[in-house]
Amino acid sequence: MAFKFRLNSKAPPVPSTQFVLISMLGAFLAIGITAWLSKISGFSWLMAPFGASCVLVFGLPDSPLAQPRSVIGGHLITTLVGLTMLYAVGDFWWSEALAVGLALALMQITRTVHAPAGANPLLVMATHPGFGFLITPVLLGALSIVGVGYLINKLRQRGSYPRYWL
C-alpha cells in the first residue's frame, strides 16, 4: 500500500517522469556539448551560470526567463556590464555591487531578464577576462544552450520552445 503524503501546498505539481527525463537529457547534452567543445577547441565554452540557464531552458521552458532573447541577451548584456565596469573603474566591492545592479536594470529595460546572467558581472570581476570573453564562453555557450533547448523541447511537444525569439 503506497502512502501519499500531501501538504496544502501552492507549489506546482511534480512534473511527469517523461518531462523530468527530457529535462535531464537536455541539460546533459547542453553542458556535455559545451564541455566537449572546450576540450577540442582549447577555448572555454563553459561558465557556472550556464548550469542555472539549463535549469530554466529545460526545466521551465515556458518561462520568459528561459526564452532565447533572455538567455542570449541576458548573458551578453550582463557580461558587457561586468567587463565595462572592470576596465573603466576597476575591481572593488562597490563596482561589483554596481555592476550587478546596472546589469539587472539593463536586462529589465531590454526585456532580457535571465536570472543566471545576474552572476556574470561577479564572474567577470573575479576572473578578469578580456573582452573576448563575450564571444567564448558567453555568446557561443548561450547559443549552444538555446540550440539544444530548441531541439530537446521539440521532443516534448513540437513548437513548444521557444515561445518567442525576439
TrEMBL record:
Domain of life from the UniProt record: Bacteria
Keyword Hydrolase: no
Transmembrane segment boundaries: 20-37, 43-60, 72-94, 131-153
Keywords: Membrane, Transmembrane, Transmembrane helix
Key word Ribosomal protein present: no
Xref: Pfam families: TM_HPP
Signal peptide span: none
HPP transmembrane region domain sequence ranges: 13-162
UniProt-recorded name of the protein: HPP family protein
Species per Swiss-Prot/TrEMBL record: Deefgea piscis
